[in-house]
Amino acid sequence: METLINVFEFLQQALFEVCVQPFAVWAGAVNLLELAYEGTGWLLVGLLQIAFMLVVMAPLEKIWPVEHWRDRQAVRVDVFYTLIHRLGVFKLLMFFTLENGLDQVWGWFRVQGVPTFHLDQVWPGVTDIAWVSFVLYLVVFDFVHYLIHRAQHAFGPWWALHALHHSQKQMTIWSDNRNHLLDDAITSLILSIVAVLLGVAPAQFVALVALGQLSESFQHANVKFWFGRIGERLWVSPRFHRLHHSIGVGHETVLAHQTVLGGCNFGVLLPVWDILGGTANFKYRFDPTGVRDQVELGRDYGTGFWAQQRLGMLRLMGRA
């Protein structure tokens, strides 16, 4: 783990010195060099992820596809979502808005003498081992993410935004970031707060996010692939997550002959939370994806980026 962190920091420093720093100086933004260095880390993570997606994941979609796409435009829009998230554009917007204010709040607490808690120090001699602390943080973060995901499907206003993610009827490796920006902002803010409260080191936080994003990209892949009876219960697979996106199965529950929000397979990385929460579905099936009202009632979720964002806000206000 330490070796990987050292290699990443070396690449980040090289990318910063060769590309980012000269541009910042040319643009007269020397006062933002510290922010630019942090942003270089997220940019490097995104570039490595996209390269892995293109070299490893994309060929698998051609070898073992679940379905053959008809609407390439829908996939191109998802690629745009992926680029603005993985290359740091969304992160930059968050920093200058919500996260900047959050940093000021934490700064005030530190001035008041409030101590900083570190989860990886609860078991001296064990949790201070790099890979042990990383696994500990991963489990805790994944549980929080599971709770967020359950909430996105349980509360009508939040579902009005999150439904955009489920409106993709042609899932691909690019579909993970197909979200309403407000939905992403809420999720990102919650995870940032948790990271500070748990005392996650910046390098570990980047690694946690990077691993999660890469796994989630593969979960959305158009591949007829699973991890076997045991593996399916250890890590979320494309089959497990596709069932969560399936029409009438993954995000709905029938109670008293009425369809209500609910569903199955909310786990982001670890299926254990679904097992404990009674929401796991391990059936080997690959159903069509989308939202019921989109298919049966023709509800418009938008075809382009701005149309999708606008309709999401209208759904939130009950006007679409």
Could you characterize what this model shows?
There is one protein chain. With 320 residues, this protein is mainly α. The chain has one domain (67-316). It is 63% helix and 2% strand. It is built from 13 helices and two strands; from the N terminus they run H-H-H-H-H-H-H-H-H-H-E-E-H-H-H. It has helices spanning 2-26, 33-63, 72-86, 89-111, 130-154, 156-166, 181-198, 202-219, 228-231, 238-245, 272-277, 292-296, 305-316, and strands at 252-255, 258-261. It has a two-stranded antiparallel sheet with strand order 1-2. Strand 1 (252-255) and strand 2 form a beta hairpin. Helix 5 crosses helix 6 (156-166), helix 5 (130-154) runs antiparallel to helix 7 and helix 6 packs antiparallel against helix 13 (305-316). The protein is globular. 32% of the residues are buried. The model has no long low-confidence stretch (mean pLDDT 89).
Could you write a compact summary of the structure shown?
The protein has one domain. The chain is 63% helix and 2% strand. It has helices at 2-26, 33-63, 72-86, 89-111, 130-154, 156-166, 181-198, 202-219, 228-231, 238-245, 272-277, 292-296, 305-316; strands at 252-255, 258-261.
Beta-strand segment tally: 2
Q: Biggest β-sheet, characterized?
A: 2 strands, antiparallel
Quick check: average pLDDT? 89
Gap from first CA to last CA: 48 Å
In what range is the share of β-strand residues? Answer: under 5%
What is the H/E order? HHHHHHHHHHEEHHH
